[in-house]
Amino acid sequence: MTDTATASGAPTGRLVRRLALYLALQGLVLLGCLVLAGLPAPEPSPAYRLTQARLASGDEAVVTLPHHLGARFTMDDPPRYRLTFEGPPASSGQAWSVLLPRFTNGVAVAVNGVEILDSRRTPSANRPDRSTPEIAVIPATLLREGTNELTVKLFVWGPLTGFLDRIYVGPDDALRPAYDRRILMFVTLPVVLAAWQVVLAVILGLMWLMRRHEPEYGALAASMAIGVAQTFVSAPSGQSVYAGLNAVLIASAPLESAFCVLFFVVFLGLRLPRYAAALFVPGLIITVTGLFGDLSQVRTTYLLLGPPTVAFCLVLIAVLIAIVFVRRRDVISLVLGSAVTVVLFFCVHDILSVLDIAKDRRIFFSRLSYSVMVIAVGIGLTWRFARALNQVDSFAGSMVTLVREAEDKLRASLARDEERARAIALSSERSRLMRDLHDGLGGQLVSIVALSERQRSGGAPIGEAARAALRDLRLVIDAMDDIGGDLMLALGAWRERIAAQLRAHGLKLDWRVLTPQGLPVYPELRPGHVIQIIRLLDEAVTNAVKHAHARTIAVSIETVPAGQGLSLGRIVIADDGRGFERPPGAAPAPGTGRGFANMKRRAERCGATLEIRSGPDGTRITLDLPARFADLDGIGG
Fold this sequence. Notes:
Elements: H1 2-38, E1 49-50, E2 52-57, E3 59-64, E4 67-69, E5 80-86, E6 96-100, E7 103-104, E8 106-111, E9 114-118, E10 134-138, E11 147-155, E12 162-164, E13 167-171, H2 172-210, H3 215-232, H4 243-250, H5 253-267, H6 281-292, H7 295-328, H8 331-354, H9 366-454, H10 460-479, H11 487-504, E14 508-513, H12 527-548, E15 552-563, E16 566-575, H13 592-606, E17 609-615, E18 618-624
Parallel strand pairs: 14-15
Antiparallel strand pairs: 1-13, 2-3, 2-5, 4-12, 5-11, 6-10, 6-13, 7-12, 8-9, 8-11, 15-16, 16-18, 17-18
Helix pairs in contact: 1-7, 1-8, 2-3, 2-9, 3-5, 4-6, 5-7, 6-7, 7-8, 8-9, 9-10, 10-11, 11-12, 12-13
């Protein structure tokens, strides 16, 4: 029992240690955020700062800037802040400006009763969630050497209350650097990050279109698209016909946060619960309110549903990432968790600023901090892509190894098959050679032995049988030569041998080649084919010598067309003897029947056609060779 408890407690202890490590790291991230939030924003020298003003809003009162105005709507009768400053000497020749670092939502500035600035002409400067500064050069004709009056009208249209930061009046050269740095920080940088976000959203959208089975890409693309729309739309101050749509886009942060939750759940490999769709309900309510209601209803609905939904989604994402880190302890979870901690910190910071709990100059960092999470997500996607590439490379390497092994096995198998084929061919050739020697030379030797045993007088029959055996042996040996499929080479050797045989019997050989090429070349021609053809021709000549009583034997060779683009070789042996036709009742010539049967059998083995015609004018034997010789293994005998 003790061992079981110890074993179950070990994993729990590891999880607790990982959670403590994760929380400690997030604490360091929060400490860094506190340091960043405490850094002062770029400001000019305090010598040009105006902090005391008379506020004319009903009763006139003296207020200290920065000043929070409790009203959420002051468009018809905006409050007026009156300030005074000492003008430069007329001989200075310097251009002076008025710098307003921060205000909510719009301002109109006048110097000595003449208006020099109205921020409502620049809608991007009136976004309540931005910290856009405004600067205006005071015309030299309006400046006085003594006391000058500065009037600031503050326009408020919600959803935040009015706010006016400290005002700076002085030489333009002294105020412009602080203004430029604020523009870089609060205007240019968000636009650059939004442009990068646009590119990433397009890439993710294309990836989702190509890989529909990975919905995390589509969810992140939708979230980023909504964030981009929030960045570039103008404030709905009522001067635009698209004010309602702009209000919906600016208030679409709940939808953006819901898509972020969906992305993180799928990206981290978690199972999406059925009630996850409830996260989209607040954003949809705000959207419907904006499409069918007025601006005030959108602002009210957003204040009630927007910040709580965004905060809840951020907390949910932070918890999910913490759970994944505790389970897997991977670097990507830590990076994503740190980015979410940054966004969550500045979201809480901005909410406390709006509620006047955290006293500051109402500078909002939520949108800037959101870019940190976008960068972290980009890192996570890049890491995931790199890991997928590594897996592909590993798989490709494994496949290369498997293919090489398969090639080696196939090569070995082919070598075995070739060796087996050579062995079969050698065995077949050996069997054929044995048959040829048995049928030809063996028969002749048996005849010689039989003649010797009879001990007849005279050696002519024995000598003739020995010469026949020698001729047959030479035939087998000559057939073994490689003639490259050219049967004419074998026929040339046969011509020399048959001419000598005919001369011994006093017969004439008439050899004719009727076509220039003689016979076609047969690549599949083998020694077995050659032996069968030569023996067939020998049989034809022997019959003519023994039985026809001919004086001349004619041999013609040619190539004849066979139709369908084919050509056939033809060999014709004709004699001028008496033929083998006989009157009714006469006995056939001895040996002719068996000889013709042997000739037909040999032609069939090669796939050739044999035709025999005989008459009073002689015998004509026509051998038509096939277009392709039969397989050597199929030749028997």
